Amino acid sequence: MLASVLSATLLGVEGRLVTVEVHVSNGLPAYNVVGLPDAAGRESRERVRAAMLSSELAWPMRRVTVNLAPGGLRKSGAGFELAVALGLLLASDGLPAGCLDGAGVLGELGLDGSIRPVPGTLALVDAFHRAGLRRVVVPVQNSGEAALVAGIEVCPARSLGELRSCLKGEQAWPAIPSRRAASAGTGGGPPDSESPDDDEGLDLADVRGLRIVRRALEVAVAGGHHMLLVGPPGVGKTMLARRITTIMPALPSHEALEVTRIHSVVGAVESGTLVTRPPFRAPHHTASTAALVGGGSGRAHPGEVTLAHRGVLFLDELAEFSPAALDALRQPLEERVVRISRQSSSLTFPADFLLIACSNPCPCAQPPAECSCSPERVARYRRRLSAPLLDRFDVRMWVGPPEAGDRPGESSASVRPRVKAAVERQRERYAGRRWHRNGGLPPGALRVHVVLDDVAEQTWREIIERRALTGRGAAAIRRVARTLADLEGAERVSSAHLERAAMMREDVP
Amino acid sequence: MSGAAAAVHGLSGTRVAAAALVNIRSMTPARLRALLTAWPDPREAVAAIARRDRRAVEVLRSLQHQGRTDLEALVAHWSRRLDLDRVARVLARRGTHVLLATEPDYPFADPVPSRPAVLLAEGRRLDAFDAPRVAIVGTRAASPHGLHDAFELGAFLARSGCTIVSGMAIGVDAAAHEGALDAGGRVVGVIATGLDIVYPRRHHVLFERAKAHGCLLTESAFATLPEPGRFPVRNRIIAGVADAVVVVEATIKGGARITAERALEYDRPVLVMPGSRRNAAAAGCNALLADGAHPLLDPSDVLVALGMTPGARRGWARRPRLQGDARRCLQACGGEPATIDQLASRTGLDPGALAQAVAECERIGALRRERGFLWPS
After folding, report:
1. Minimal Cα–Cα distance from B361 to chain A, Å?
2. What span, in angstroms and rounded, lies between the C-alpha atoms of A175 and B17?
3. Any idea what DSSP says for residue B140?
């Protein structure tokens, strides 16, 4: 007797369909799982058996073979257990044949027959949807999340016994628990929430003074320019960086789904909530390379750069990160994806993030006039930040101690519309391109998209000479000038834009 | 015994013998001074060691801090290692000069007690010692302001006909040497290592320039490596060779303070540039001023201290005149480094106007960008 049920597993942050085949035959009672399960998969026997017995279902005293196909793909997690149990019921006529046709099944079992949630439901359900399935059985806790995928019927399951009745049509399906208002609408566009509700009441107005740095922050967000803040501790670098998401526009619907899917994989999102605000990730400087860019032992996990996808990766104390970890950042910064190569497979994680970094100027971290570090010590400290990495920062500002007369600045609410308008202007201009922000403009595209008239061209050359800029530095200033023009709604980049852009790119520490 | 090789480049047997004594590995300045006090002619000192004279052992034993060293064995060891011919060949090949405290070409103006008995010098312009000599010393961790001042002082004094003496270290030392060299002046670099060692390595160009337009001076044997203890000891030579000592930026415990204290001991005028209390690299300067050192307010003060006529020559480079926003920016700095944000807060200028004003200041050199801050020049 053979039955097969469709389920799915995670490969990186994508779902892959897995066919769970259950074969029940004569022979000594046995239970074997084949098809490259991980330890949790191999342990499923005890959970499936206890769950079935607790639900007053018969456990076949026969030879049971479970195959997870395709056989060459490594599967992870306990999310197949519900599929195995349903397969056993189908194979032993506990369920009417065909009741699971065109349906995907996800869920882990408890010993009492309850059905437990699985991570990454959104990605898994998305995989079912793309494979053309019409229905999905998911743990009730994940049902809200599953419902974010448009065009697939979600069947919430609370326990094995109840699920069996529902499938047989003896009982109605339980309701999908209501979700927070912010994420209303199954799979539709997110509500156009412009006021972020997850920023703990942070506001740019909390920051006093720093008039130029806050403008630079606005530029960084609007144009997608990576930003480096250098300065002694306690002058407001971190405070400023923490408020960056408050001036970012909400994620458009397709990006919101993309981000929610990633965060659901690591279980970092409340089920059923669509992430509509750009994520803000701030890993500690002791983070390993794998934690930062992804990978790790066993199943490849998305790293911080992937969790910061479409949002902000904030690295405080940049020079304290391990050189290997910082080096590994260069590839995602360049390609906007992370490639993780394994012996048997290679994975790609999305990693399109805005990098905001803070650093002390030297080990003693005092302002330069009060610094007591020897030149060798400073040089050694600065060597930790490689020139190629520093080159990626289009905006580089030094933050000094606050001034006596500093007043609170503009509020986030008044900055946000400017940023939004500039973002939309760029999206229009770069429609159909590989990049969508000025920060991603390749040097070759500068002449086309950042046109300089004769006066501006002369100013540009003068700045290059005055500041002894390299080719990369010159290109960065031109890109930032484009964003400054976009923020003002100006069509052309002027000399004034270039001078201000130059002001926002200080020399490397 | 050393006649042939020495005669080739005109070094007397006396000087070759002195160099040979310096180049004995376990020779120290104190031992050398004791030996040359007992035998004022180095040739006789060499001969005494060669015959393992009992008196040589007695002389060494009279010194302090000899510990439990077996001095008889030491002298015996020296007697085996002395090779005047080899030393003479090395001196000839390198063109090294040997300066003896007993000879008139010795660069110390007066017989201060701790002066080295023998100095080795290399360089094309030994006449650098003929001009008034000003030592410019300071910390290695100097601020851009300090480096700028050291450079300007070196250039001004070189143009006024002085030789600049310093220690070839990074920071103030190098800036002073470079200022003097760029102004076409003469320099004396007093180093703690052997003449065949370049330390710090990054100054190899400066070492070549110093040898071409002045000389390097040391009391150490060839191949002596940079050991921490040698630098403070070296500083007494800087103080002794100089006719006046200028301290630009010095930390509380730095070598520059040692140099200044030696100079006061040797009765040389010491001029100190006052600094901000915020500047850790100037705390030593202010401490010296509190102790009664002469404040240096204008480079020509040094000429006055040397008894020279300052003349009409201007001291510090004139500050550029500015108008409007640029002037406001410069005033907002208040002589201290500032970030662009601090200037924005203090001047109240909008970002566009500020960018223009700072660019103008940079263009004419009124503000300089260093370590991420804007420094008024």
Report:
1. 11
2. 105
3. S
Structure tokens at B81: 């290692």
Q: Please indicate whether, in this complex, the C-beta atoms of B345 and A503 are within 8 angstroms of each other.
A: no
CATH architecture of B126-305: 3-Layer(aba) Sandwich (3.40)
> Cβ contacts (< 8 Å) between A397 and chain B: which residues?
339-341
Q: Taking CA B12 as the corner, what is the angle to CA B11 and CA B17, rounded to the nearest 5 degrees?
A: 100
| Closest to A260 in 3D by CA, of A268, A175, A224 | A268
- Token pair belonging to A276: 């509509």
- Which region, left, alpha or beta, applies to residue A272 given φ > 0 means left and ψ of -120 to 50 means alpha? left
Q: Which residues of B touch A503 (CB under 8 A)?
A: 340, 351, 354-355, 358
Task: Give the model's pLDDT for residue B143.
Answer: 86
B341 touches chain A (CB under 8 A): yes
- CATH fit for domain A226-393, picks 3.30.70.380, 3.40.50.300, 3.40.50.970, 3.40.640.10: 3.40.50.300
- Spatial neighbors of B23 by CB under 8 A, at least 6 apart, are B87, B221, B222
Q: Which two tokens stand for residue A214?
A: 């806050």
**Mean pLDDT within B351-377:** 88
- Distance, CA of B87 to CA of B15 (rounded, Å): 10
Q: How far is CA A410 from the centre of its chain?
A: 29
The Cα–Cα gap between B78 and B62 comes to 18
Residue A394 DSSP code: S
**Domain A2-183: which CATH number of 3.65.10.10, 3.30.230.10, 3.40.250.10, 2.60.40.200:** 3.30.230.10
Q: What residues of B are in contact with residue A502 (Cβ under 8 Å)?
A: 355, 359
Quick one: average pLDDT of B263-268? 93
Q: Where are the domains of chain B?
A: 3-95, 126-305, 324-376
Cα–Cα distance measured from residue A226 to residue A353, given in angstroms and rounded to the nearest whole number: 9
Distance CA B71, CA B58 (A): 9
Q: Which stretch of A256-270, B123-137, B219-233, B278-292 has the lowest confidence by average pLDDT?
A: A256-270
Q: What is the CATH number of domain B324-376?
A: 1.10.10.10
Chain B partners of A494 at a C-beta cutoff of 8 Å? none
> Nearest CB to B340: which of A212, A371, A466?
A212
Tokens of A359: 């650093």
For residue A444 the two structure tokens come to: 């070759």
Distance between CA atoms of residues B179 and A222, nearest Å: 46
Burial (CB < 10 A; 0-12, 13-18, 19+), residue B15, is: buried
pLDDT of A48-67, one tens digit each? 999 999 999 988 889 999 99
Asked if the Cβ–Cβ distance from B345 to A367 is below 8 Å, we say no
Query: Which of B143, B147, B148, B342 would best serve as a mutation to test chain A binding (most A beta carbons within 10 A)?
Result: B342
| Chain A positions in Cβ-Cβ contact with residue B362 (cut-off 8 Å) | 466
Contact between A400 and B342 using a beta-carbon 8 Å cutoff: yes
Pairwise CB contact (< 8 Å): A503 & B355: yes
- Answer whether the bond into residue B113 is a cis peptide, omega within 30°: no
- Contact between B60 and B31 under an 8 Å Cβ cutoff? The reply is yes
Closest CA to B199 of B219, B165, B224: B224
Name every residue whose Cβ is closer than 8 Å to that of residue B233 and which is 6 or more positions away in sequence. Answer: B29, B192
Q: Delimit the domains of chain A by residue range.
A: 2-183, 226-393
- Read off φ and ψ for residue B342, nearest 5 degrees: -65, -40
ipTM of the assembly? 0.77
